[in-house]
Specification:
Order of helices and strands: HHHHHHHHHHHHEEHHHHHE
Structural class: mainly alpha
Radius of gyration: 22 Å
Number of domains: 1
Number of helices: 17
Helix content: 55-70%
Distance between the termini: 55 Å
Number of strands: 3
Oligomer: single chain
Largest sheet: 3 strands, antiparallel
Shape: globular
């Protein structure tokens, strides 16, 4: 039997997961029609599981295979389209909790990260739509948690190796959902390699000396490639001819994915640019469906981050950058490096059309940045803790509940949606 301490250790993550799944599941049957990219991914998942064809060839297969599990379990209906996103949304919340634990080293801060993530609005919306990004970031959050846990001084070499091995597997699975995971994987490999090769004053200390180059190469070099390609083996079992061969999977399909990303050039009414995302200038409406005899009601879903966490989070990132460069803060380094990688990586990706949901992974790191700010405030004013922490969470929760009707497809009067449109560019 587990000791009482171990039971408590697992109780909080379990309760967070169950609470998240319950929250994300409520009203899941709306929108009643396929929603934004569900029009692409649901049919692709159906045909992929039937071993017939791969219509959505511009993305790797794992996310669509996961989506197909939901279709097999619940059928071709709104719950079937989204139930796996609900599950992986709950898994993502666990990933954020363990990422917080790896960065800050204590369960109070990890709980703060998870609670702020739960009300930052991005996870709520992404956990209720059948899109690849939800599955990708679930794996990626755990991968970044493992790297952050390994980047700590005085760890046994065996522990570092295990954490980096887990990270490598998870990076590969994340990339097998969507290629945007390649950039954080590459940064993790480059960062750990650089820190092991040379001591630089702006990199925090880590326990890399007991880790051999061979172990590092296998953990963060070979294993991600193996687990990236693993889901592609489903194509070897396709019915009909010509059936893709191993060389097709290794090379031709990868070139097709690259070429497919470059070919997306058509304008979209909710397209945006990377420099719009951090300031919430142009969110994206996933759905806006009319109901009623005179279309007097609407159900809308807008991906819009919690303004308190999003706008204030930019100041938290700026303070973290200053603390990293001036004081060599390990926590600030891990948070700021992750945010800049997940955000500014889109400057490098040669895709001509982009949307606000690309900011989803970077926006999630703001929960870590805010937790760092609250922890620093606790050091300055320990008598205020935990009141300041809980007051901030309650304030963020208030904004989440305020925006909830247009996040969760609630039935509202047709013109009332404008009360939530603080900026004209949100419409």
């Amino acid at each position: 039997m587990l000791s009482q301490g171990k039971e408590r250790k697992f109780l909080v993550p379990a309760l967070l997961f169950l609470a998240a799944v319950a929250l994300f599941s409520f009203n899941l049957q709306y929108p009643a029609t396929r929603n934004f990219d569900e029009f692409h991914y649901v049919p692709a998942a159906q045909k992929l599981w039937a071993l017939q064809e791969n219509p959505n060839w511009e993305h790797p297969p794992l996310g669509k295979l996961i989506l197909g599990v939901g279709l097999a379990l619940a059928g071709d209906n709104p719950v079937g389209w989204r139930c796996m996103s609900v599950l992986f949304g709950g898994i993502t919340l666990l990933g954020m909790y363990f990422w917080g634990l790896a960065v800050f080293g204590n369960r109070r801060s990890a709980l703060t990260v998870a609670l702020l993530t739960l009300v930052n609005q991005l996870l709520y919306v992404q956990a209720r739509i059948g899109m690849l990004d939800t599955f990708m970031f679930a794996f990626l959050s755990f991968a970044l948690a493992a790297v952050s846990g390994a980047w700590r001084p005085h760890l046994p070499a065996r522990t570092v190796h295990k954490l980096l091995t887990a990270a490598g597997i998870l990076f590969g699975l994340a990339a097998a959902c969507k290629w945007s995971a390649l950039i954080p994987w590459g940064l993790a490999l480059a960062g750990v390699s650089l820190a092991k090769a040379v001591r630089l004053p702006w990199l925090p200390e880590g326990s890399w000396q007991g880790l051999s180059w061979k172990q590092l190469g296998v953990s963060l070099g070979l294993l991600p490639v193996v687990f990236y390609y693993l889901p592609f083996t489903i194509f070897l079992f396709f019915e009909g001819q010509p059936r893709p061969g191993l060389l097709d999977i290794l090379f031709r399909m990868q070139w097709a994915i690259w070429d497919g990303q470059l070919r997306v050039v058509s304008d979209h009414p909710y397209m945006s640019h990377w420099y719009d995302w951090a300031t919430l200038k142009r969110p994206i409406w996933y759905a806006f469906d009319h109901e009623g005899a005179s279309q007097e009601w609407v159900r809308g879903v807008v991906l819009l981050g919690n303004p308190v966490l999003m706008w204030g989070g930019l100041a938290a990132i700026a303070l973290g950058l200053w603390s990293w460069l001036k004081e060599r803060s390990r926590e600030a380094f891990l948070i700021v490096a992750a945010y800049l990688c997940l955000y500014l990586g889109w400057v490098l990706i040669p895709r001509k059309i982009s949307f606000y949901y690309y900011y989803y992974p970077a926006g999630m790191t703001l929960s870590l940045a805010w937790t760092w700010i609250l922890d620093e405030a606790d050091k300055e004013r320990p008598a205020w803790s935990p009141w300041l922490r809980w007051a901030f969470f309650v304030g963020c929760l208030g904004f989440f509940l305020y925006f909830l009707p247009i996040l969760g497809a609630f039935k509202i009067p047709a013109e009332s949606f404008r009360r939530w449109m603080w900026l004209d560019s949100w419409i």
